[in-house]
Amino acid sequence: MSVAPHLQLPPTDRVLSSRTGWTRAHWEATADRMLDALTPYATPGFAQYRLPGRGSWSGVVSDGLEGFARSFLLAACRIAGAGGAVDPSLTERYAAGLAAGTDPGSGEAWPRLTDCSQQMVEAASVAVALHETRPWIWDRLDAGVQERVVDWFSGFVGGRTWDNNWRLFQVVSEQFLASVGAPYSRSDIEGGLDRIEDWYVGDGWYTDGDGRNFDYYVGWAMHLYPLLWARIAGPDGDGGRAAVYRERLSRFLEDYQHFFGSDGAPIHQGRSLTYRFAALAPVWMGALADCTPLAPGLTRRLASGTLRHFAERGAPDERGLLTLGWYDTFLPTTQPYSGPASPYWASKGFLGLLLPADHAVWTERELPLPVEESDTYTALPAPGWLLHGTRHDGIVRLVNHGSDHNPPAPAPADADPDLGAGEDDPHYAKLGYSTATAPESAPHALARTVDGHLALVAPDGTPSRRRRIHPLRCEDRVAASWSAARLPGDERAYRIGTTSVLHGPWEIRVHRVESPEGAVVREGGHAVADRTSPFASSGPDWALARTAEGLTSAVVALYGWDGGADGAAVARDVESNAYGPHSAVPYLRSAPHPGGRSVHVSLVVLSRDSVHPEALRTAVRVRVDGDAVVLTFLDGSRVEV
């Protein structure tokens, strides 16, 4: 694909940036286009940006503040990174917006900060932006406007936030108050920073609040805001905490570099995916805080590859706007709190502009991503994930045995502690995610939940859900977990245990299933999606779906399926996938279960290579001996599950 011409980018530089062609000038041009595109949607005093698109549950005024705050963060990166040498109208717009937004008589005033209000999220962006642009905006505001800004931020002092990443919005905002000599609560700041210690689970990983909430919030919130706080507090005011945060981020980035495919795509998993290249925030922060284990040329290659990936696919769009979606508009990628300006948390992906133009990240030659040099396998015991990337097609896959976004046990009294109290969110509940696919997530597709899921299917067609995930093992190329399944009219919870084994480009799944009599066991592979309907094919024990561009998803029965002529098929859908309007999922089906326990083994493929399912049946020998399942591969290696 080619970058949309409306971005008006400079020529590519294949000497400095042999992989992407992008330089700092491309980043600046993209930021300028995105900021210019917002001006037609500004209110008269520039305090709000009321963008087109579905509104959030917080209302139009809050959504307008969101447009100001999140784009202000982008403007701050551009202004501070250029040492203030930008079009004067840019600083003037945001200075004017601060004056009007804090003036109750302006007709476009921002809502007051109240407990757990959306304004708290946006205030943190304003605080960070004000700190980074202090010489060019804050220091030039008249005293009356400064007083009104301080008064607005004071709603944080002693206030209550949601008990997750929101604690950090209070931390950075009150630290800004401290930095300008305004009243603040030291206990609010210390309490918020102390609270995130309860969520640190090791190896650089946090969960976002209580429970097993692992997703991009780990990087663009839990790692980001503590180090942004440290930038505001200064080296003499961080109490030694910043050194700990830098060490944790460094460890996180060792693994995080493996989350990106050779085409720049991040793995499509978790909530708020409409923030898109905000996924780059921890990568840039590692360089800003001088704690990254990544070489400068690798940092820029990763970041430029991801920004270019989205620019090539319509984000920003022909208007220069970011829509509610992944590439183009796709609302199932969003949440009810997502408003038209929510995607502009992607501004965090521009933090690298705060680095000076002569920084090594901008001047050294690009280096290849890990997946561009070799096949990669990464075990992440903290979130319960396996990553495997294949050099020949550049795809990175995530095998999920640990993140479910469910409330922690003990669950509420009216919920089964094994099942979990939440829903099976498709962005968390699947067994597999990747840089080339997205889960089926439209409401009409959720009822059958085929892709990335091992289900018990009741006689009426209702599938069981995968909600609370109980991790068992995650090391080398093997991960395992179990979950409980329940069917309509049956009070019993049936245990489904799954072990994933990686070998070459394949994932072999070994399932130990408890089932009532008459249920059918069904397993789906990755959903592939495109602008045109994918090709589909199947046999008695395999199924395959392939896009016009050659991305293939396949599942192959290796043991225990015995579904006969109806043992494999491809499910199709429309407007249910972020990667395209036409999607397809290959799946396997067993015969009606006799009841009790059974073992099912399948091979799952996602590849841009040619895939021959009949041949793959011979690639793995399976022997089941009591409680042991032994997998023997063509190269002679053996794995006992």
Short descriptors:
single chain, 641 residues, alpha+beta, eight-stranded antiparallel beta sheet, five-stranded antiparallel beta sheet, 15 helices, 27% helix, globular
Short description:
It contains 15 helices and 22 strands.
Topology:
Elements: H1 24-38, H2 60-81, H3 88-101, H4 118-132, H5 143-153, H6 166-179, H7 186-197, E1 200-202, E2 205-206, H8 217-233, H9 241-256, H10 281-288, H11 296-311, H12 360-363, H13 370-373, E3 376-380, E4 385-389, E5 396-400, E6 432-434, H14 443-446, E7 454-457, E8 470-475, E9 478-485, E10 494-503, E11 506-515, E12 520-524, E13 528-530, E14 535-539, E15 542-546, E16 552-559, E17 568-577, E18 580-589, E19 596-607, H15 613-616, E20 620-625, E21 628-633, E22 638-640
Antiparallel strand pairs: 1-2, 3-4, 4-5, 5-6, 7-12, 8-9, 9-10, 10-11, 11-19, 12-18, 13-18, 14-15, 15-16, 16-19, 17-18, 20-21, 21-22
